[in-house]
Amino acid sequence: MPMVIPEVSDYTGPHNSRKLSLDPLAERYKLIGTHFWPKFHLHHYVTGARVWIPDADQVWRCAELAKDYKDNVVAVIYEDAQGIQQTEDLKVKSDEDLPPLRNPDILIGENDLTSLSYLHEPAVLYNLQVRFCNHNAIYTYCGIVLVAINPYDELPIYGQDTITAYRGHNMGDLDPHIFAVAEEAFTQMEREDKDQSIIVSGESGAGKTVSAKYAMRYFASVGGSADSETHVEKKILASNPIMEAIGNAKTTRNDNSSRFGKYIELDFTRNYSIMGANMRTYLLEKSRVVFQAPDERNYHIFYQLCAVASEEKLKHLRLGVPERFHYLNQGLHAVPQVTPRKKRKGHQDNFHYLNQGFSPHIDGVDDGANFHETCQAFNLLGINDNSQDQIYRVLAGILHLGNVIIDESGTDSSAINKNDESMQIASDLFGVDVDDLRKWLCHRKIVSGREVFTKPLTTSEATFSRDALAKHIYAKVFDWIVSQINKCFAAKTQPFRFIGVLDIYGFETFEINSFEQFCINYANEKLQQQFNQHVFKLEQEEYVKEQIEWEFINFYDNQPCIDLIESKLGILVLLDEECRMPKGSDQSWVEKLYDKCKKWDHFSKPRLSNTSFIIAHFADKVGYECAGFLEKNRDTVSEDCVNILKSSQYPLVRSLFTEKAKGAQTKVKVMPAGPAKSKDMKKSVGSQFRESLSLLMATLNSTTPHYVRCIKPNDDKMSFTFDPTRAIQQLRACGVLETVRISAAGYPSRWTYNEFLCRYRVLCNSRDIQRNDVRVTCQKIISNMISDEDKFKFGRTKIFFRAGQVAYMEKLRADRLCACGVMIQKNVRMFIHRKRYRTVRNAAMTIQRYTRGLMSRRRVHHMRQTAAAIKIQACMRGWLKRVRYQRLKYTIIRLQSCARGNWARQRFEHMRRVRACIVIQKHVRKYLAVKHFRLAVKGFITLQGMVRCFLARRRLKKLKIEAKSIEHQKKLNKGLENKIISLQQKLTEMKHENNNIKAYKEEITALKSQVVDMKALESQLKGTTNRVTELEALVTKLTVEVEHERGEKMDILTQKEQAEKENRELLERLNAENAKLTEELKEAQKEESLRQGEELLRRKFEAEKQQIIMESSEEKAAYQRLLGEYNRLEQKNDILEEQLAKVKGGTHKRSASNVSNSGASDTPTELVRDDIMDLSSMIGDDDIGYGSVRSRMSENSDSSRNLENIEWESPQKIPNADIKIHVPERVEDITLVLQLQNKVRELEKERRTMAKRVDQLETSSSPLDDSQHAQELIRLQELEMENAKIKDDLNRLRKSIAESEPHNNQVQEFMKQFEALQDELERRREECIQLRTVLANRSSDIRSLTENSYGKDVDIVNEDGELAVAYQTQKQVNRQLEEELKTEKMRHKETESEYKSELDRLRRDNERQQKLLSQNLSKGGGSHPEALLQSEIMRLTSENLNLQGQVDSLTEQLKKYKRTLKAYARKLKEASGTDPTDLLDVANNETDVMPVIRKKERDYMGMFEYDRSDEMQIIRVLIYELKPRVAVTFLPGLPAYILFMCIRHTDHINDDEKVRSLLNNIVNGVKRVIKKRHEDLDSTVLWLSNTLRLLHNLKQYSGDKAFQAENTVKQNEQSLKNFDLSEYRQVLSDIAVWIYNGVIKLMEEKVQPLIVPSILEHEAIAGLSGNKPGGMRGRAGSVARELESPVEPQKALDLLLKEMTQFYRTLAMFGTDPELITQVFRQIFYFICAGSLNNLLLRKDMCHWSKGMQIRYNLSHLEQWTRDMRLHESGVTETLAPIIQAAQLLQARKTDDDVHSICDMCDKLSVSQIIKILNLYTPADDFEERVPISFIHKIQTKLQERAEGEQAQATLLMNTKFAFPVRFPFNPSSIHLEDIELPDSLSLSMLKKV
């Protein structure tokens, strides 16, 4: 129930009396918040306090207390309308009736009304007025409600830039806007996966339709469908002109008023793009078709048709101007002179349905243009021209039907003239027979039994029948168009989610209210109830979420009013019942209402009327006239007329009446032909509306609602004019004040702990601050300020305050700051004045000293002269004075005598008159006092009577309520039953969800089992046959055969024998490892069988006991031996630790985790092996760094420098890395050819033999016997010898490294540490070998010993449970062996792949040799010297092959040593904590990494020759597979150089097809790579740089003189000779622009989340906080959510600079042109400026002086960054000028003297941006002054002087999509093409340098 506000007593005084209204609906909101004020607030009512007092004109007027409040008297001072100061004393009945306090100036103009400290009606009204009139802000939040005030003007705040600005922001982050509400709904749909709805309401003319239109535009923009063919969002927007044409009309309040309600559901896919829509309409105002009130119009579509009636395609409609039709001209102010129809042809007043409003035109509206827009919308929605023509026919037929004149043909009959032109036209347009239509308009059919009678209608009945038919036809057309629109919107599939936009009428109250207003107000009652419940629910959820104690908040419940309308004996039921009565009438219905509804408090009967009734709605009391209720509820139409239309010749007309329109919400009843048919079969309009409203409410309740309340500021449609009286009426009606009241009843002011401490830190002492606990600090601050604990609550993350507490704290803060300021000012002024005083005093003393001397001298001289003059004057003056005195004395005595006589006579006369006046006044005052007393007594008596009546009535109501308490309890029980049912439904749903979750868990379990099976299958696949031995044997055989070919060289034979020995040892070692792996595999399989048979062991324990005991005995013996060895190893470990400590200087300590144990004996070996495998991928990456010249033999040549045992016979014959055999065209050494063929066959035979041997070894599963074991021991010794040799080589390598750096202490220290680690590794390896050997030898002895000791009864072995322990230990060992086996298999597979690649290479070389030899054999002839030369060439070729094989083997050994060294270095780092890898890198860089510049023995042409078949391989290596991390080690632009050198070769050989294919593949490859890696910045920058380098190369070597200015002579000679590639240059330029845009997009995406936190929110200046009381009330969204910024503001600036630095390094690292880098950062800085400025223009809380200082400081970091990167001279920082000027504008002084300077300073800001910032400027403290409105007007006037072109381009928001023109300046290369070499990491062996 509504709250009862105590009244303010009358006050009688010298001025006009003032009292508050007693209207309960007004009182509900007038003093919102004051009811909750205790006496704690009384100390606010002191002299100077500002309050609100009621006012008749302004509703509320601001006043100031003249003195302190006491004795229930409030003395106020205020200014009246004329500006004259008035004083008045207000008497209040109690403290609760005190006038509401005014908020501090710092809170005025807030974005959210609930952020005000004092929440009441005057504060809400004044805040809206200030924002609307002063700031031109039409949107304001009120909790979850967006209040939208119609500006009656076009505002530039709905563009695409604004949509982009609001996208992704939470509601409340930016200024209030309809886009913010739409974004909130769209975001909640995405995140919460729930349907949403936006409810837009307000009275006519408030802007509901426009708000709904912009909301749908936002959804269409952010949720645009990906299907470019459908464009659903465009169709949705295109439906607006159609619906406005057929559903909107001009009223007295609005030129474009929606005369129907609509609910549009926008359907979305799972990707949240629009896929369709659906529209539902409610309660079309059909009566407007046939009648319009004065100064109103019919629906727009009729006037649009008349406006284009002269067009050729519409001439058949025979229309004219709207004045011709009666249905269109009924709204004129004055009824025109009636003239004969023939003389008025073509005029509006000829048409009855158009001439009743007498207002056919709207100022500024072109009906003709709107008609064409409607036609375009029809076309876009798929309604063809034929359907449109039929629609226009029907609409024109309605107009002509209204012009049909019905004459009287008798007393009870009527007729239509056969010559009636309008009748004929209407029949033709409808496509029906004119005679039938004429007949049934004037007659009706009555069926009585089997007879049918035709009854004529009277003129009034026929007219009513004609108008009913017109309304029925129009409603059908309206429904048909809506159904067609829905068909066009319909989605092909089931929508995933939807957002509904409800555009519905607000409360309506007119002088005469009928059925339409009743339905509208009924709908608003339902919506208001849903709104109240939702707001109350959110408020409670906030308190529960924050875990604070709260009390139940009472809110107004309008359920009684709804029950009055829709209950069993409610108004709608009685109306339907009366409609079913044969003789039911409006009067009888209203009498039933008086009788049945008098029990309802919300129903009343007017005193002076018997035909109306009053309903107390939520908004106001509305009186309804019963006239027309029944007829409008029935909505009857002649069935005979409908049957005529069903027989129309036009399909559309027939379909309107033969088919039921789908989705039509407005339906009518067809008047039956006779009483025999049941009338109950048709639903009334009221019943249909109630059902559709129930369906709507069910839909809204299933969604998350968002509310938009539209307010009409004035009735005159004046732009930015605010009428407080009209506004407050709408605020009370639309629920805004209800939201405020609920908020004020709880804790409306809310602060987070950090914000509160930052704001009110000044109110506490330093000792009260606990920096590690902000909450405790806040509690101490509040306890010192507020003593009543009910005034605040501490939540989980926020502090909650009662209304008014924040204003009180702001006052304390202001007082404290004022005191601090006074203290500072006092001391500063004291210092200044003291210093000034001392300076002035010293100067004054000096001046005085000299002045006093001069004055003293002058004074002495003057005294001497004075003494002489005095004596002369004394005598003379004495004589003169005596003479003058005597004369004066005589004159004065005579004058005194005359004057004293005259004065005595006058005094006597005055005394007589005074006494007479006193007598008169006495009698007059007595009369006035008596009269005043009588009037006062009479007034008091009257007042007492009224008060007593009022109390009696209130007592009577309470008694009635008590009498009905049983019914109330029943209602409560009914509500509880509903709640119980809903809880049961929720419980059922939760059970269903639990079942689904269980099903999901079962599926997860099944998937896990499948994963385990897949892993097992993978382990089986890894156990495939190892082909390593085969390939190694093949390589060994080939090497041996080649070395046998040149047996005469002893040194080569020695190397060959050594290689054979090594290979044999390697083979034996691999055989041993293979056998070992086979045994390990068997053991792993045994362990697997044991694992699977754990269940069978329980059943077969007796059968398998013997085997388990034997295994356990072996493990036990091994365990005992390992324990014995443990002590010895521990002692050795201590010794080694001491030695290692000595080497390291005593800094290393051995940990327990490093001690060897039985389960990890192979750990060092496995770690080294893993490290080697990890480093295997590094092969080929040694060639890193920049360099224009590379050598493919750099690695081999460097690695072979320390190999002294190799004798190079002819080193000069190996100049480069390309190992190619150059054979002359004629070769005749047949012997050599045959030998090579034989050796190839032998190699193949041996390869097959070795393969068979490997297969046999792999398939053999029998265990090794003792002899084999001995052989394995011998092989193990050989392997140890090989290992010792490798160690010697490694020591030599280490010594060579140490000798290369003799003075480097770090290298020497590293070598010492390495030696110690190597010794320890050797010791551990020996220990592992010994342990394994002893374990293997003793296993059989233990088994026999167990049998001998225990015999068959071996159960006693497991007496102490050792068997289970041994079994678990065995399982762990087996698992470890299995893991080692897997690792070994992976390593063997990698080795196998390497050997296969080597074998393929050797096979290709062999085939090439055979091909060359076969060619030479086919040729004959030649001289003997040539044969000798050829023989020598073949010999040298064979030597080169042998030497190359040796070099390769040595290189592999060297790489192996390197990897081992790196592994040891890693172990050393883990042991000692030092990082020796830097030393390794230095050594590697000095030996391997640095490119080797070879001496060219011949001149190269700077080209790469390649075969056409290898073209895709080149593209794949250089483009597809090139990684940025690899490319960064090359010369910048190296891929572009290589590709260009290939292009040069195609130009050199003049191959047109080859160059075209190469260029096309390059272009397609770059496009493909960028499309695939468009999200990788490194890849895009890499190919941006290479594309531009290729473009520059094509220009530099094109032969154009414009590009050859900086070329050398050699470069000019290398220009293209045969091809003009200018067209491909354009293609590459376009690709570069495309890649450039992609780079900019990637950078903008990374920078965007950092812009606002780093530029606007980052506060680096200590003590200059930007917080202001705008955060007192947190934004209350539709669903409470806490979405924090992804970046902390204090870290955002550093992150932004870090990102910018990373961008710059990436661009520079890949060799991007400096000019392009400048363009990139110019674009990025513009994006930063646009994003920050747009956000600033939409955030009121950012516009104050301190924030301007912070912004300017943050921007200075960006400017400094550009200076550090040397970009400041290129104009990059100029793009930041707008945001810099905005920050300066916030800091600038704003007085009238600064107008010119501000205008000159802000030359980069548009006029709208400057005015917007000034309007948003809000002081953060009371010490700052607000910007005066006069100052803003002066600035605006001054800015109008700017150029018109500048004004034309001025917009409010900067275009974030703007891009500067891209230029790629020509940048020639100084690198010579002939010096470029291919690095080894690029597998481009198919390229041959020419």
Topology summary:
Layout: H1 24-30, E1 50-55, E2 59-65, E3 73-79, E4 85-91, H2 121-134, E5 139-142, E6 145-149, H3 160-166, H4 178-192, E7 196-201, H5 208-222, H6 232-247, E8 248-249, E9 257-258, E10 261-268, E11 274-282, H7 287-290, H8 300-307, E12 330-332, E13 356-358, H9 367-380, H10 385-402, E14 406-408, E15 414-416, H11 421-430, H12 434-442, E16 443-448, E17 451-456, H13 459-489, E18 497-503, H14 515-546, H15 559-566, H16 571-580, H17 586-596, E19 603-604, E20 612-616, E21 621-625, H18 629-634, H19 639-646, H20 651-658, H21 685-701, E22 704-711, H22 724-734, H23 736-745, E23 749-752, H24 753-760, H25 774-785, E24 792-794, E25 798-801, H26 805-963, H27 965-1021, H28 1028-1045, H29 1050-1092, H30 1094-1099, H31 1101-1144, H32 1163-1175, H33 1194-1199, H34 1230-1259, H35 1266-1300, H36 1305-1350, H37 1362-1417, H38 1424-1472, H39 1477-1489, E26 1504-1505, H40 1511-1520, H41 1524-1527, H42 1534-1549, H43 1552-1572, H44 1577-1596, H45 1609-1613, H46 1622-1657, H47 1689-1709, H48 1714-1737, H49 1745-1764, H50 1777-1787, H51 1795-1801, H52 1807-1816, H53 1829-1839, H54 1844-1848, ...
Parallel strand pairs: 6-22, 7-18, 7-22, 12-13
Antiparallel strand pairs: 1-2, 2-3, 3-4, 5-6, 8-9, 10-11, 10-18, 14-15, 16-17, 19-20, 20-21, 23-25, 24-25, 26-27
Helix pairs in contact: 4-5, 5-6, 6-8, 6-9, 6-13, 8-9, 10-11, 10-13, 14-15, 14-21, 14-23, 16-17, 19-20, 24-25, 28-29, 28-34, 28-37, 28-38, 29-35, 29-37, 31-36, 31-37, 32-38, 34-37, 36-38, 40-43, 42-43, 42-44, 43-46, 44-46, 46-47, 46-48, 46-49, 48-50, 49-50, 51-53, 52-53
